TrEMBL record:
GO terms for biological process: methylation. This is Class I SAM-dependent methyltransferase. It comes from Winogradskyella aquimaris. One of its GO terms (molecular function) is methyltransferase activity. Its EC number is 2.1.1.-. Keywords: Methyltransferase, Transferase.
Length: 393
């Protein structure tokens, strides 16, 4: 960690060059010999990526940034704030600390946090930044988290771990057992040292597969931000043997859409099917990832269009975790019938339909945008239909 980067004139240069393109900055040249111009560029690139993802760090003076890859791999403040709300205890150890975003938010809910980071440079950066941010209840340990846990040999209220989802060649992996460290083989060790364990996994990983690999899972939180699933948070509790509760969260600019269900309830749920009624519902991405396709029907007293369409309908408007539309017209998928409707511009969504959005636009000559919403799907009679809706309610 080169602390000359924190000199006033260097910091002023970094802050005044956040907006310009880095390539144009390189052409103009960096007006400093010390520190290494490459380090200054690295700071600019990393800070740029923090403006929306990590606004607290972006706004705080004298923050030292790691390389941009560390920024890309870290939790956002939005998701870190959410997961911190799941804990409220005395001690927590973060075994894969990284840039320290999660540890920062955990420190607001837990009396003492231990942040483990194997990279000496990154650990030093995090320690500096916590001091700048006024955090005094996080201990930064520059060591492997698993070895630290064994070495400390004491009980924590919580263990948090975010295993690496890339192999030695930096390729993404899609099985929990391929992540580093191997959570499947270490879960008993974790539950030996803590009653509660929180494991963050990629949304690309299969929920059923992980459920079969882990023991004592009490809850799964499927966390989406603006309808994009960001994290799967698995909560393990020592000796827990009950049914898995799944909580879906979609954090939007207008608030939080949440829905929860038990895994077994989804398996046992019965579904009623219907042709499109007065309102149409499209589940958010967290619901879709969690696989809450059946229980949501009985829970909200709504009906499904088709087993594989994952679109829902009702005559009475309900508070639905996703988008809600009023249905204006239902048409068969027929070029001549559609032409008579006179729709030239619309927002298009497909569910359980053989054509892509681009293919539909070309075939029916529909421009993107406007106030109309078209859903191309399959109804309960296996008929291909077009549902014309007014704007999201």
């Amino acid at each position: 960690m080169d602390k000359t980067i924190l000199n006033i004139e260097i910091q002023e240069f970094i802050n005044s060059n956040i907006k310009p393109d880095v390539s144009s900055l390189l052409l103009r040249g960096i007006p400093f010999d010390t520190p290494d111009p490459k380090l200054i560029i690295e700071q600019i690139e990393a800070k740029k990526r923090c403006e929306k993802k990590l606004p607290t760090w972006f706004r705080t003076k004298n923050i030292y940034y790691p390389n941009k890859l560390n920024i890309e791999q870290t939790s956002s403040e939005t998701t870190a704030h959410y997961k911190a709300g799941l804990v409220n205890d005395n001690t927590l150890i973060d075994l894969t600390g990284g840039f320290g975003i999660d540890a920062y938010y955990f420190s607001k809910r837990v009396k003492m946090v231990t942040h483990c980071e194997i990279s000496s440079r990154l650990s030093e950066i995090v320690k500096h930044n916590f001091k700048v941010l006024g955090v005094d209840n996080v201990e930064c340990v520059n060591a492997d988290g698993i070895e630290t846990l064994k070495g400390i040999d004491k009980h924590f209220d919580w263990i948090y771990i975010d295993p690496s989802r890339r192999d030695d060649s930096k390729n993404k992996v899609f099985l929990l057992s391929d992540c580093t460290p191997n959570i499947k083989t270490l879960q008993s060790l974790f539950l030996k040292y803590a009653k509660h364990v929180m494991i963050k996994t990629s949304p690309l990983l299969d929920i059923t597969a992980i459920k079969n690999e882990l023991k004592h899972i009490k809850e799964l939180h499927v966390v989406a931000v603006n309808n994009e699933v960001k994290e799967l948070l698995w909560i393990l509790e020592r000796d827990f043997k009950g049914d898995l509760k799944i909580k879906t969260i979609n954090i939007t600019k207008n608030g939080i859409q949440d829905f929860e269900f038990n895994f077994e309830d989804e398996l046992k749920a019965t579904v009623e099917y219907a042709l499109p009624l007065t309102y149409l519902y499209e589940p958010n991405s967290a619901i879709l990832k969690a696989g809450a396709f059946n229980y949501i029907c009985s829970s909200l007293n709504i009906k499904k269009l088709h087993k594989h369409s994952h679109l829902y309908t009702s005559d009475e408007l309900v508070n639905f975790p996703g988008r809600r539309f009023r249905i204006e017209k239902v048409m068969p998928f027929n070029k001549k019938v559609f032409a008579k409707a006179g729709i030239q511009k619309a927002n298009i969504t497909t569910r359980n339909f053989p054509l892509s959005v681009n293919d539909i636009r070309k075939k029916l000559k529909i421009k993107d945008g406007g106030m109309s919403y078209l859903f191309f799907t399959t109804d309960k009679n296996n008929t291909k239909i077009i549902i014309l809706c007014s704007k999201d309610i």
